[in-house]
Each structure stands twice: as structure tokens, then as C-alpha cells.
């Protein structure tokens, strides 16, 4: 099937084609899924090298599962997010991650104050995320960085929606408390 | 008396927290191009073989195919003739020219098909019988 036509296919159809040896399906799936997986892994682990390892392993597991894929089960992305999250959590627990690679703030340039402020806030949040318990971290990343809904997160984490809401509420409280001392430095104005 | 100033320092509200997440989303990590190429390569390597590659039935051996062709004929002399023609074609295709010359010479020098076929004297087949 031509590349243009294949690009409009949903993930599960592409995965079926992949299982039949369709090279174009392999390329499109990698292009679609690799960035999502890497982003999730990087946010969880805050370490590029480890995020790459997890990305590679997650995708490899998907390719191996493709021939026996049950199309009545979860969406491809849901399954992949779940595998990635579990691999990240395994690494965190094994290596007792705290803060890994920190986003670097670019050197100051004239007129770049806003961009610097954005970068500083990003660094502060990434650092604070690393201090959350891993399940809270995972829920917060899936909700607020991957923009997934609570039902989708419930599927990925294999917990109830209420449990997801609880994790997110606790995560928000912890982050809000951790970041509050940096409000002024990061450009937030106190109300009078 | 409200401790509004202290309260505002103690925590962020939802809108302020959202600004942090917006900032982090803008600093999206990008995949290294070399690593991406590696992932593509891994996908191709892990991909099952195309279905047409392994769905082709295994071809029967040459002898088996000739035997099947022979069975289609009622009379064994005709079948033998077909077998000889087929075998000759295979031999010609598989052998260098010098060998073919020898075989051809042998063919025309043979007194009977049975001699060419290496059959026993008991079982004789002459040209007139074909």
C-alpha cells in the first residue's frame, strides 16, 4: 500500500500490516510511536540515555507482540504507554532514581527573558517531578504532559479512575508545595 | 486576619501549576536522529517475513515431478518416452557443452531406447515401439 494511504491508517491496522511484513507500516509506526514513548520515558527518568534504553525495549516488545496482537484488547498506544511506564518504574526502583539529567537553561541573549523564564520553570518542574513517588509521577506525566484522559490513564496504569484522580490530586498538592518557594524567582507575582 | 501573603507563598494554585506544565511541554525532548535511525532499523529487523515469502509451497523434487508427469500417461512406453525427453532436458541444462556432446553421441549411437535408458536386456524397447 502506498505511503500516503498508509499514513491515514490507525495504529492497530498498521500493526496488522507490520505483522505481515509491510515495511511502510513499520516506518510509520516507528515515526508515530517513538516520540511518544521517548517523551514519556524521559519525563519519568530525566535521563536521556535511560530513556533511549526504555524506548528501544518498549518498541521491541511491541514488534514481538504484533503477530499475536489481540485487536479486541487495549489500543496500541495504551499498551505501549503501560509497557513504558512499567519499564521506567522498574528502573527507578532498581537504581533509586532521584534527579538525573537536568534540562539546561540556554545562555542569556538580549530579548530572551521570556524564553529563559519558560526554561527555568520547565527545569524546576522536571526537578520536582523526580521527587514524586513513581506512581504519582507517572499519573501526573500522563495527565499533564501526555494530555491523556483519566479513563485512558486508568487503562494504562490498570487502576480505577478514582485511583487515578487520587494520584493526580496528591501529585498536584506535592508539586504545588515544592514549587511555591520559587514563585517569585520564576516570575509569578504575589497577589496583594 | 488573613495570611494571604503567606498562603500565596505556601502553595501554587491550579493556574500557576498549569503554567509550569505548559513551560515543560514547550521543552519537549527530541529523539536523537542517530537513535531514531536505530529504532527504524530495529523495527525492520524485528518485522516478520512478508507472508508471500513463506506461504509458497515447497517445490517437489525433480524426480518426483517427472514421476507425476509420467503417471498421467496410460502406456508405459509413452511415459518412458516423456521421461527420457524430460531427463534429457534436465541433463542438458545442468551439464557443460562437452558432456552434452557425449550424451548426444550416445543417444544417436544407441540401438534402442532401452539401451539408452539403461534397461535390462529382458526389457527391450525399440524405436519402432514408440
- Count of DSSP helices of chain B? 8
Biggest sheet details of chain B? none
**CATH architecture heading of the largest domain in chain A:** Orthogonal Bundle
Average pLDDT rating of chain A? 88
Number of domains of chain A: 2
Shape field of chain B: rod-shaped
Query: Approximately how much beta-strand content do the residues of chain B carry?
Result: under 5%
Low-confidence stretches of chain B: 1-8
Run of helices and strands of chain B: HHHHHHHH
Integer average pLDDT of chain B: 67
* Class from secondary-structure proportions of chain B: mainly alpha
The top-level CATH class of the largest domain in chain A is Mainly Alpha
First-last Cα distance of chain A: 63 Å
Spans of chain A of 5+ residues with little confidence (pLDDT < 50)? none
Rg of chain A, rounded, reads 19 Å
Helix content of chain B: 55-70%
How is the biggest beta sheet of chain A arranged? Answer: none
User: Pairing-aware structural class of the strands and helices of chain A?
Assistant: mainly alpha
Q: Given the structure, what is the number of helices of chain A? A: 9
The CATH superfamily of the largest domain in chain A appears as RNA polymerase sigma factor, region 2, helix turn helix motif
Textual characterization of the structure:
The complex is a heterodimer of chains A (192) and B (130). Chain A has 192 residues and is mainly alpha-helical. In chain A, 68% of the residues lie in helices and 0% in strands. The radius of gyration of chain A is 19 Å and the shape is globular. Chain A starts with a helix and ends in a 13-residue tail after the last helix. Chain B has 130 residues and is an all-alpha fold. Chain B is built from 8 helices and no strands. Chains A and B meet through helix 3, helix 4, helix 6 and helix 9 of A and helix 1, helix 2 and helix 3 of B.
Amino acid at each position: 500500500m502506498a505511503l500516503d494511504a498508509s499514513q491515514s491508517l490507525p495504529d492497530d491496522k498498521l500493526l496488522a500490516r507490520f505483522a505481515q511484513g509491510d515495511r511502510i507500516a513499520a516506518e510509520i509506526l516507528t515515526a508515530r510511536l517513538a516520540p511518544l514513548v521517548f517523551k514519556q520515558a524521559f519525563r519519568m527518568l530525566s535521563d536521556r540515555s535511560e530513556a533511549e534504553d526504555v524506548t528501544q525495549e518498549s518498541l521491541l516488545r511491541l514488534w514481538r507482540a504484533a503477530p499475536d496482537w489481540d485487536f479486541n484488547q487495549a489500543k496500541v498506544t495504551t499498551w505501549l504507554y503501560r509497557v513504558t511506564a512499567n519499564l521506567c518504574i522498574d528502573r527507578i526502583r532498581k537504581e533509586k532514581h532521584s534527579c538525573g539529567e537536568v534540562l539546561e537553561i540556554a545562555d542569556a541573549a538580549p530579548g530572551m527573558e521570556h524564553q529563559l523564564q519558560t526554561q527555568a520553570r520547565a527545569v524546576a518542574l522536571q526537578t520536582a517531578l523526580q521527587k514524586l513517588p513513581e506512581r504519582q509521577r507517572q499519573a501526573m506525566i500522563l495527565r499533564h504532559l501526555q494530555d491523556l484522559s483519566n479513563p485512558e490513564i486508568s487503562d494504562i496504569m490498570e487502576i480505577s479512575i478514582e485511583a487515578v484522580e487520587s494520584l493526580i490530586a496528591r501529585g498536584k498538592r506535592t508539586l504545588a508545595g515544592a514549587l511555591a518557594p520559587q514563585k517569585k524567582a520564576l516570575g509569578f507575582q504575589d497577589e496583594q | 486576619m488573613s495570611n494571604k501573603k503567606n498562603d500565596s507563598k505556601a502553595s501554587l494554585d491550579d493556574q500557576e501549576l498549569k503554567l509550569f506544565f505548559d513551560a515543560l511541554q514547550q521543552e519537549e525532548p527530541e529523539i536523537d536522529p542517530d537513535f531514531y535511525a536505530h529504532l527504524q532499523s530495529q523495527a525492520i529487523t524485528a518485522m516478520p517475513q512478508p507472508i508471500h515469502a513463506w506461504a509458497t509451497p515447497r517445490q517437489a523434487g525433480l524426480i518426483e515431478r517427472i514421476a507425476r508427469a509420467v503417471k498421467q500417461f496410460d502406456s508405459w512406453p509413452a511415459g518412458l518416452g516423456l521421461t527420457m525427453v524430460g531427463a534429457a532436458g534436465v541433463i542438458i541444462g545442468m551439464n557443460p557443452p562437452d558432456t552434452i556432446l557425449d550424451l548426444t553421441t550416445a543417444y544417436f549411437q544407441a540401438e534402442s531406447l532401452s539401451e539408452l535408458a539403461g534397461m535390462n536386456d529382458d526389457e527391450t524397447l525399440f524405436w519402432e515401439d514408440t
